[in-house]
Each structure stands twice: as C-alpha cells, then as structure tokens.
Amino acid sequence: MFADPTGTRAAVFAAVFVALFVAHQVADHWVQTQHQADCKGQPGWAGRIACAAHVTTYTITALVALLFVVAGTGLRLDPSGVAVGLAVPAVTHYIADRRTPLKRIAAALGSARFYALGAPRPGHDDNPSLGTGAYALDQSWHIGWLFVAALFCAV
Fold first, then answer.
1. Whole-number Å distance between alpha carbons of 32 and 129
2. What is the pLDDT of residue 128?
3. Running along the chain, 155 residues long, what does each successive block of 10 average in pLDDT?
4. Cβ atoms of 89 and 145 closer than 8 Å
5. b/e map 3-26, b = 16+ CB within 10 Å
6. What is this structure's pTM?
7. Is the Cβ–Cβ distance between 84 and 57 less than 8 Å?
8. Helix, strand, coil % in the chain, rounded to nearest 5
9. pLDDT value at position 123?
10. Distance (Å, rounded) from C-alpha 134 to C-alpha 97?
11. DSSP string computed for 8-38
12. Which of the residues 61, 79, 96, 118 could staple to 132 if both were Cys, CB 3.0 to 4.6 A apart?
C-alpha cells in the first residue's frame, strides 16, 4: 500500500489501537451509566437517546485516550484521520448497541445460536452474567471496528 521503511505507521497504528482498546473497555464498562446500559437496546426514542448518550461518552473517552497518547509520547496524528477514526467506532458502536441489528447480523452469518448462548430463559433471570454469546459477539464487533479505526488514525 504505502512504503514505510521506518515502521512509523505501524508504531502509530499500535499506539492508537491500544489507546482505543483501553478507552473502549473503560467507556463500555465504567463510563456507561446503568440507565444507558439498561435502555440503549429498547425500541423507540428512549432507546435511541440512551444509546446516543452512551456513544457520546464512549467517543469522548476515546478522544481523551488519544489526547493522552499524543501528550505522553509526542505522537503526531492527522486530525482528519482521527475524526474518521473516531467516527467509525461511534457509528458501529451505536449499531451494535441497539441490539436488534447485531442480533440480525449474527443470524445472517449463521451465529444465532451462539448469540443466544447463556441468555436468561424468557421469564427468568437465571443467568445475569457477562458470559453470553451476545456479549462476546458485541465485544468482538467493537474490537474489530477499533482495528479499522486505528488504521484511519495511523494514515
């Protein structure tokens, strides 16, 4: 693609990916409010607003992480690459966290049974855990898009 004999782009990609991955973990598990977590997948405007609020704080957390990397390492990032790099996970995070789109994507790819793995049975609260197929697919979706985002930031 582009010649980079010094490996600078690879180093920038690595630093940015780590920052975005850390920000993802912090934003998805610490910054996200309980209300956002409970409501972001609900139908209608209440769900859309909760999801948009979560994605907003998620994106701010990612921006802060990138600013810390820049301040701490002297790394130089192109603002337009960063803008695209932050937009990619924001849009894809919203899609996944609305729940229905990710469930449909999983079904279309033949992973509906995995998506349902570990979910509480209807009418029961018998497995309130993070160890579900839906959670695993959600997280891997997000991390895959962080990879793409880091590529945009490193260009």
1. 17
2. 61
3. 69 96 96 96 97 98 97 94 97 95 94 87 70 88 96 91
4. yes
5. eeeeeeeeebbebbbebbbebbeb
6. 0.87
7. no
8. 75, 0, 25
9. 81
10. 11
11. HHHHHHHHHHHHHHHHHHHIIIIIS-HHHHH
12. 118
For residues 36 and 50, the answer to whether their CB atoms sit within 8 Å is yes
pLDDT at 130: 62
Q: Would you say 153 and 66 are in contact if contact means Cβ atoms under 8 Å apart?
A: yes
SS3 65: helix
What pLDDT is stored for residue 129 in this prediction? 64
C-alpha dihedral over 145, 28, 54, 20, to 10 degrees?
-40
User: Which ranges constitute the DSSP H helices of the chain?
Assistant: 8-26, 34-39, 44-73, 79-97, 100-108, 112-116, 133-154
